[in-house]
């Protein structure tokens, strides 16, 4: 009887407690792709949860071999560290050993995903296929399109 009560509590947990949803990840990918199409760009886009597991991914037409792998690595890097890959190059220079740590990517295009109120980190988005600044802008646009934040609330 007690076990059934616990199972009911787990099933009844609010969606926000479960982290990034498939619907949110889908909205991120679609928002990023819409941003890219408007700029006549093409990206490989990956969205991961805080454990680095892929929740959604989309390779737009025209991407070269390896771009999806790179976008996944960017997304996993920000999921692991909680800050954009654009800041990892400086962190690698100023923090001894950081460059050799797992999940460090020193190229822009990986952006963390936070809840709509900016208080809870949900995962990361990686985009690859264009200039690094464009990859980062695409990821941020996708996050915004999903109604989420790319920065922690202060």
Give your account of this protein's structure.
This protein is an alpha+beta fold and 154 residues long. The chain has a single domain (22-145), classed as Beta-Lactamase (2-Layer Sandwich), CATH 3.30.450.150. It has five helices and four strands, in the order ααββααββα. Strand 3 (110-114) and strand 4 (121-128) form a beta hairpin.
Please specify the SSE layout and strand pairing:
Layout: H1 2-11, H2 22-38, E1 44-49, E2 54-59, H3 67-81, H4 88-94, E3 110-114, E4 121-128, H5 132-145
Helix pairs in contact: 2-5
- Spatial gap, N to C terminus: 44 Å
Query: What share of the residues does DSSP label as strand, in percent?
Result: 15-25%
Tally of helical runs: 5
CATH superfamily: Haem-degrading domain
Strand order of the largest sheet: 2-1-4-3
- Text of the CATH class: Alpha Beta
CATH topology: Beta-Lactamase
Q: Overall 3D geometry?
A: globular
CATH architecture: 2-Layer Sandwich
Number of domains: 1
Enumerate the spans where pLDDT stays under 50 for 5 or more consecutive residues: 1-16
Q: What is the H-and-E element order?
A: HHEEHHEEH
